[in-house]
Write a structure and sequence with these properties.
ten-stranded mixed beta sheet, CV3147-like fold, S-Me-THD_N, DUF917 domain-containing protein, CV3147-like, single chain, about 30% helix, about 350 residues, seven-stranded antiparallel beta sheet, S-Me-THD_C_sf, alpha+beta
């Protein structure tokens, strides 16, 4: 299977949904992917089992604040500089590109990076969604050492970091990112195909494509998307307040949705750190990380990223279960509510919506 220009709209829609508000605006990733395919041709999509054990897999992603990455676009040279540095370090070239996070632009842009490098794209990622911090990846949860991070920015700087662990990889990479203007391209957890087995989340590119295609031509796009995701509907209403600030390489803030129609009289608040982290109603959590929480346009079911939230938008908030990896003790320690500073015991979305007719 290859990814061609005709696949990009569906991939972008699916990645926007999986981005849970983050991962960057899919429009920039889509334009980059289309241009790269026009220049270099379709990108082969390969399964992990197709790669030899010693093949180098390069997880690539943009790091930084989505509000900045929307304005400061990655250049073609960044991926090439990172690939050259990896070949210099390992003594052999990369064999495949993998999305570090399938959510948002970081799920679409790897198509462009793979095309530019003349490499296949691995049908996998390291999150099954989007998360804001470097250590919040499946490889860290699986116990692989985070001993190499390679970063490049739009100016042409290349930085190689040898962190002692995943938490230090976040601290150091974030500092470099802020120095670069709060956006950069990053390869972290460069690994062989043998190491990747059991340490990455497979099939996520094809899942994003399926999610994006679920609403194509649907008479009721919101219903079609909800059913495809197996999601609970938390509220349908109007955005009445949005507070955002860019600090420390992140977008942080809150968004408030007041219910309309059957949900009139209800108010849901979303806590944001690049992604939608916690949904609260009347002081009670309705959904929380690592489960996925996405805001979509009520009419079109198109996902709305955190940087695109605006007063007056008519939206629906959906939530559904994360990959089982994130519900393990190490997964919750890494990306559960307490990892983000919330004094909350993780409760799966299935439990939080049990008995709720909207769920």
């Amino acid at each position: 299977m290859s990814i061609d220009i005709s696949d990009i709209p569906a991939l972008a829609r699916g990645c926007a949904v999986l981005g849970t508000g983050g991962g960057g605006d899919v429009r920039t990733g889509s334009l980059a992917a289309i241009r790269a395919i026009q220049t270099y041709g379709p990108v082969p999509l390969v399964e992990l089992a197709e790669l030899p054990g010693d093949a180098l897999v390069v997880p690539l992603s943009g790091i930084g604040a989505p509000t900045v990455s929307h304005e400061m676009i990655h250049s073609e040279d960044e991926a090439k500089r990172i690939a050259e540095e990896i070949e210099r370090i390992f003594g052999r070239p990369p064999a495949a590109v993998m999305s570090s996070e399938i959510g948002g632009s970081n799920g679409v842009a790897p198509v462009a990076w793979a095309a530019q490098l003349g490499l296949p794209l691995l049908d996998a990622d390291a999150m099954g969604r989007a998360f804001p911090e470097v250590q919040m990846v499946s490889m860290y949860v699986a116990g692989l050492p985070a001993d190499l991070v390679v970063m490049s920015d739009v100016v042409g700087n290349v930085v190689t970091i040898r962190p002692v662990d995943g938490l230090w990889s976040e601290r150091l990479a974030r500092a470099v990112c802020v120095a670069a203007g709060s956006t950069a391209l990053m390869a972290d957890y460069v690994l062989t195909a043998a190491q990747a087995r059991g340490a990455v989340i497979e099939g996520t590119v094809t899942r994003a494509l399926a999610i994006g295609r679920a609403t194509e031509g649907a008479a009721e796009p919101l219903r079609a998307l909800t059913e495809r995701l197996g999601a609970a509907r938390l509220i349908t209403g109007k955005l009445t307040d949005v507070e955002r600030r860019t600090t420390g390489g992140f977008v942080r803030g809150t968004a408030t949705i007041e219910g309309t129609g059957d949900d009139r009289g209800r108010t849901l608040t979303l806590e944001l750190q690049n992604e939608n982290l916690v949904a609260v109603e009347n002081g009670r959590p309705r959904a929380m990380v690592p489960d996925l929480i996405t805001v979509v346009d009520t009419e079109t079911a198109a996902a709305v990223q955190t940087e695109g939230l605006r007063y007056g938008q008519r939206v629906t908030v959906l939530a559904w279960p994360c990959d089982p990896l994130w519900r393990t003790p190490k997964g919750l320690e890494t990306a559960g509510p307490r990892a983000f500073g919330y004094d909350l015991e993780y409760v799966p979305i299935e439990e939080l919506v049990k008995g709720d007719p909207r769920g």
